[in-house]
Amino acid sequence: MHPIDRSADAIAPAALSLAVRGPGMSDQLGALRNWLVRENALRGRLELRRRPGAEGEMGALADVLLVALGAGGTGAVVARSMSTWLVQRRSDVTITVTAPDGRQVHVDVQRARNPVAVIREVEQLTAPERE
To answer: What InterPro entries does UniProt report for this protein, alphabetically (predicted)?
Structure first.
């Protein structure tokens, strides 16, 4: 069982937000969390939360997995592990990774087959936005 913070608080400012879309979204997100927690670099950095659904979406709340950012390439660890998890899925699942500033990357099974590209894109989300 995994803890879920059911508050509708804003997403932590120094965290990546991972949302899963596809069959059994909530179960898939829990499975992703259980997979990521095995990474030593991510232990203590993962939290499941409820957040308000996007405008126009049906339903009031959606589950998200927050990954607290820190030194040591947290984004690369998330991207590599997430890519491995995705290619092992039997269902069509897409993960949306959202940076603290709102920039997003969408990763599905096909894109996960190129983990180097996924790692590069997620790392770009964790870097400050250039003007």
So the answer is: EACC1 (IPR045428)
Report the 10 Å Cβ neighbour count for 119.
19
CATH number corresponding to 14-126: 3.30.70
Q: pTM of the entire structure? A: 0.76
Distances (CA, A) of 13 to 16, 38, 69, 102, 103: 9, 24, 9, 10, 13
Q: What are the residue ranges spanned by the domains of the chain?
A: 14-126
- For range 51-76, the mean pLDDT: 73
Q: How many CA atoms lie within 13 A of 86 on its CB side?
A: 27
**pLDDT tens track for 86-100:** 888 877 888 999 988
The amino acid that residue 125 corresponds to is L
Angle at 130 between CA 128 and CA 10, to 5 degrees: 45
Query: How far apart, in Å, are the Cα atoms of 34 and each of 1, 10, 26, 37, 41?
Result: 9, 23, 12, 5, 14
